[in-house]
Predict the 3D structure of the following.
Amino acid sequence: VNRKKHVPSMYELGKHYVENSNTEKLSKGISLLERAEQNEYPDSFNLLGNCYLKGIGVVLDVKKAISYFYKAIDAGNLHAKVNLGQCYIEGNGLCLNQEKGFRILNEAPQDDPAAKFRIGVCYYKGVGVEHDVEKGIELLKEAVLGDDIDAMCYYGKLLMKGTDVEMNKPEAIKYFRKAAARGQAEAKFQLGRVYEEGIEDVPKDIGQALDLYKESSNAGFPKAYYRLGKHYFNDLNKKKEGIELFEKAADFYDVDALKELARIYSEGDGAPVNQDKADNYLEIAEDPQLYKSKKD
């Protein structure tokens, strides 16, 4: 009984380590989450599923991720429906079914900012539901006010470009910083780009940008592998590391990485010529969704 008392704090510590994406603490975080799972703590099922879905501190395993989401839902954690619905929407590990994904998102608690964010994106893009930009933006804003870090990053990108909202780069950077400080993988990537390019009053700082790309890739954001790989590839002493990072991004079906690898193996730039490999990468790049569904 006493041991059970410590499970929530064990879970919270594991969650903290995982969400802060510190590589030294990631494995410890996963270990704590697994111990919470062994004690049948429902929140740990959903978070472990998310780790397997994105390859955070564990080997990427979409099927295992989905089984964790179902386990969480069966244990009464309806917040896991947000992750499960998104898998249907993206065709990630499940047959692509955007209408079903949208229905499942709406079965999640509607006061959950994560659900508001995902449903907002569906309306904004017209995915699984009739296209309604205004309603989408409204839900995104509500999710941001609800402190959802994914919503902060998404809304920040709209503000940065002035897409369907008034452009406000300082506000966008503020959201990237806030979300990145709480471990949001893409926000770290977006903040890295701000430092790489020196946007607004943020001075250009390539070292800081690369650190953020590393943190972003550790937290499971594929484009960060590609961006970091580009920097390494352009350094003669790190070309091999650059190719390894492109290959990691390609594992997530990142089109830019797939095309770059096709070029590398076709031209023998930093690796021996391998036309079969080049053709294979190019073929996948033309329809990554098809290959992804075949693999899943």
Q: What stands out?
A: The chain has a mean pLDDT of 92. Residues 20 and 183 are 5 Å apart (CA to CA). The chain is about 70% helix and 0% strand.
